[in-house]
Specification:
about 40% helix; Aldehyde Dehydrogenase, Chain A, domain 1; 28 helices; 32 strands; Aldehyde Dehydrogenase, Chain A, domain 2; 6-stranded mixed β-sheet; binds 1,4-dihydronicotinamide adenine dinucleotide; 3 domains; alpha/beta; single chain
């Protein structure tokens, strides 16, 4: 034990270990845990050990959930759901407030339990995780109260299966359970096998506050239990974890009609511009990649620093890194605790080894005894190095340089992920410009890893889809307002016509494809017969050409809503002027609809706003609807013109470029649109129109990496195949119900919402 006078000389920290006796007493009194089903704990069975990763000590025994356990839990949730949904918003809110309050009352207990179970420093569980858990329940109590006012016509989904990871165990539980309950759903949640204890303590809190039985059910177990949940009779699956498992879940749920949200991995850029406050940026790295031992999906794991300040930045960074204290998680002065499990430690070390084998240099990052790895970073690392491409999910960043802002953006976006990013610059102009150009769901300007229940969180691309937090998060737990569904006529088999002129067949028209603003013959030269003429039979190559043309028309998004509105008004006017030409091919109702849709979405083009949400004081937190980029749209096989305009116009109004597969059986009215588009100043490539075998073409689009989102109206079988193909790069697929496309419910905000994804930009202020 050092004497005070010695400490005053060395200024070393002494041990300051948080008392864990209350938690240990609780664990000892429970010993073995069953599942929490229907308001009660089941008898423990098929147990496995849950350990403190910092010491290897067994903390408790958990039950491995079987498919039967999952089925029981789903049954309990199903039974409880109608009654829970029928409670008034205020009554549901009261339960959520009670959960929030009881969590707050037990902040210390839960923080210690979390730290023991996960290995994260007590400073983090006490100051970040648990306060955010309480905040999440408070915030969503408000949503329970306001649900019907704010989301009229929306209903709860039913029973939600929720699978969470081990990096923020109780916080991820809160992110999942609070919005689900606020919306009127009931849940079956599976915590990660390494870190189930706070979920089980939460189950006890549910009982304590008198939450109705079966509203929250918790089943413990590993990936097999998770797979059983995905296969169970549930209405929604919400998953946070690895991209690999997320992709498997997407494939498994394809065509089931279940709602799916995925929060997956990341390799987020951390960009330091030459005018950044370098000391602040170094602190940002600490919060980014050395927070929670780097086991953070949105960790700023790729540090990109302007070449002119790189040397100075690295000096500051290494000095700071060396002062980080690695040690006992329960010690209040520990900065870096234990990795969650030996399996994860091995995974981190193996990626580091692959990175150094491929030529990178590792600074720090040495493994310690047990589950500890010192903070570190990889330098001199090539873009294709595995350490640069793979999510390390440990306290190891990469460090590389750039010369210009454009290069920084290019490097930042050179990843299959798109979860988050952090930008450091003293110039608001530079920082916001870069934040806007990074393709990711959450951007932090001059800050990192900020979270709040009001600020939507979620990814682009292979980081998944769906949002947690705020209004966007609520919508992912609600069913869209019901519409009158009309059965769609199945397309007839495509009948080839070799004679492209159609002479002698009584056919008077041969339409073309519309790609890149020009009429194009189909690649294979084939046409098929449709009422009134021949339609071009597009193949995969045409689809690829159309996607390429759409990709090149990126300026459309940059034009802004006002300019896009003008084009859409122009389309409305030109359609009206050419109504007679259309009359030969389609009904008056469809022509009127087409014109009405153009006016409607022209009006919306500059009004589908984002929000400045009330997250933390002193921060501007902007939630912006961003276009996806290239969207593929497979139209229904009925009301060709009305359906086409109802689907395509909202997509382009928001700034997307589209690749559209027209009604298979009767697409000729669409050929009349080419001239309307050409004369309305619609830039080439914004709308590309293909005709032919819809499901085949749609599958090619769904599998195409450059297509960021897909809308499909068609058969259940077709949708299954589309969703399977889309799982490759995890693009979201929306399948609006087939309806009478001339009716009012075929337009509106719902379509705009599906044509955009939210990007949350955090900007702290204060002189
Ligand atoms: P994981 O994705 O296997 O585990 C996450 C959750 O999914 C756990 O509850 C697990 O039991 C469950 N699960 C596993 N297989 C499943 C299946 N087939 N069906 C349904 N549920 C299943 O992640 P893991 O193996 O623990 O970590 C591996 C890597 O994943 C990490 O190194 C990291 O790169 C990444 N990861 C990312 C997270 C994030 O927040 N984005 C969180 C955890 C891990």
């Amino acid at each position: 034990m050092s004497r005070v006078s010695e400490i005053m000389t060395s200024m070393e920290y002494g041990p300051s270990v948080e008392d864990s006796s209350a938690v240990r007493d609780w664990l000892a009194s429970r010993g073995q845990f069953g599942h929490f089903i229907g308001g009660d704990f089941t008898k423990p069975a098929d147990c496995f050990a849950s350990r403190d990763p910092s010491t290897g000590e067994v903390l408790a025994e958990l039950s491995q959930g079987s498919a039967e356990d999952v089925a029981e839990a789903v049954k309990a949730a199903r039974k409880a759901q109608p009654k829970w949904a029928k409670l008034s918003g205020t009554d549901r809110a009261r339960h959520l407030y009670a959960l929030a309050r009881h969590i707050q009352k037990r902040e210390r207990f839960l923080s210690v339990l979390e730290t023991l179970d996960n290995g994260k420093p007590i400073r983090e569980s006490r100051d970040i995780d648990i306060p955010l858990v309480a905040r999440h329940f408070y915030h969503h109590a408000g949503w329970a109260e306001l649900r019907d006012e704010r989301f009229p016509g929306h209903a709860p989904l039913g029973v939600c299966a929720q699978i969470i990871p081990w990096n923020f165990p109780l916080l991820m539980l809160a992110w999942k359970i609070a919005p689900a309950l606020a919306a009127g759903n009931t849940v079956v949640l599976k915590p990660a096998e390494y870190t189930s204890l706070t979920a089980l303590a939460f189950a006890e809190i549910c009982r304590e506050v008198g939450l109705p039985e079966g509203v929250v059910n918790i089943v413990t177990g590993d990936g097999k239990t998770g797979a059983a949940m995905v296969a169970a009779e549930v209405d929604k699956i919400a998953f946070t974890g690895s991209t690999e498992v997320g992709r498997a879940i997407a494939a498994q749920t394809a065509g089931t009609g279940r709602k799916l949200t995925l929060e997956l991995g990341g390799k987020s850029p951390f960009i330091v511009m030459d005018d950044a406050d370098l000391d602040a940026a170094v602190e940002g790295v600490v919060d980014s990649i050395w927070f929670n031992q780097g086991q953070v999906c949105c960790a700023g794991s790729r540090i990109l620093v302007a070449e002119s300040v790189a040397a100075r930045f690295e000096t500051l960074l290494t000095a700071r890194m060396q002062r980080l204290r690695l040690g006992a998680p329960l010690d209040k002065s520990t900065d870096i605790g234990a990795i969650v499990d030996p399996v994860q430690k091995d995974r981190v070390l193996s990626i580091c080894k692959a990175a150094t084998d491929a030529g990178a240099e590792l600074v720090g990052g040495q493994p310690g005894e047990g589950c500890f790895i010192a903070p570190g970073y990889l330098k001199n690392i090539a873009p294709a190095n595995p350490g640069m491409e793979q999510e390390i999910f440990g306290p190891i960043a990469t460090l590389s340089t750039f010369r210009t802002a454009d290069e920084a953006v290019e490097l930042a976006n050179n990843t299959r992920y798109g979860l988050a990013g952090s930008v450091w610059s003293e110039s608001a102009t530079v920082a916001t410009d870069i934040a806007a150009r990074i393709k990711a769901g959450v951007l932090w300007i001059n800050c990192a890893n900020m979270f709040d229940a009001a600020a939507p969180f979620g990814g682009y691309r292979e980081s998944g889809f769906g949002r947690e937090g705020g209004a966007a998060g609520m919508l992912d737990y609600l069913a869209e307002p019901a519409v009158k569904v009309v059965k769609e006529p199945a397309p007839k088999p495509v009948r080839l016509m070799d004679d492209v002129t159609g002479k002698g067949h009584g056919i008077d028209r041969t339409a073309k494809l519309y790609i890149g603003g020009a009429q194009k013959r189909p690649d294979g030269g084939a046409n098929y017969t449709v009422p009134g003429g021949l339609a071009p039979l597009a193949n995969r190559k045409d689809m690829r050409n159309a996607v390429e043309a759409a990709t090149k028309s990126g300026k459309w998004a940059a034009m802004g809503g006002h300019a896009r509105a003008q084009v859409l008004y122009y389309i409305a006017e030109n359609l009206a002027a050419r109504a007679d030409d259309f009359q030969r091919l389609t009904s008056k109702a469809e022509i009127d609809t087409a014109i009405a849709r153009a006016f409607h979405y022209a009006a919306w083009a500059d009004k589908f706003d984002g929000a400045n949400v009330q997250a933390k004081p002193g921060h501007l937190v902007n939630v912006l609807p961003e276009p996806y980029g290239v969207m593929a749209i497979a139209c229904p096989n009925a009301q060709p013109l009305a359906a086409f305009m109802s689907l395509v116009l909202p997509a382009i109004a928001m700034g997307n470029s589209t690749v559209v597969i027209g009604a298979q059986d009767d697409p000729l009215a669409l050929a009349e649109l080419y001239q309307v588009f050409d004369t309305s100043d619609l830039p080439g490539g914004v709308v590309n129109i293909l005709t032919g075998a819809k499901d085949e073409l749609a599958q090619t689009a769904a599998a195409h990496d450059a297509v960021a989102a897909m809308w499909y109206v068609g058969s259940r079988d077709g949708l299954t195949r589309i969703e399977q193909a889309a799982g490759g790069n995890l693009k979201p697929v929306w399948s609006p119900a087939h309806r009478d496309w001339t009716k009012h419910d075929a337009q509106g905000e719902l379509f705009l919402r599906h044509a955009t994804r939210t990007k949350t930009i955090w900007l702290p202020y204060g002189a």
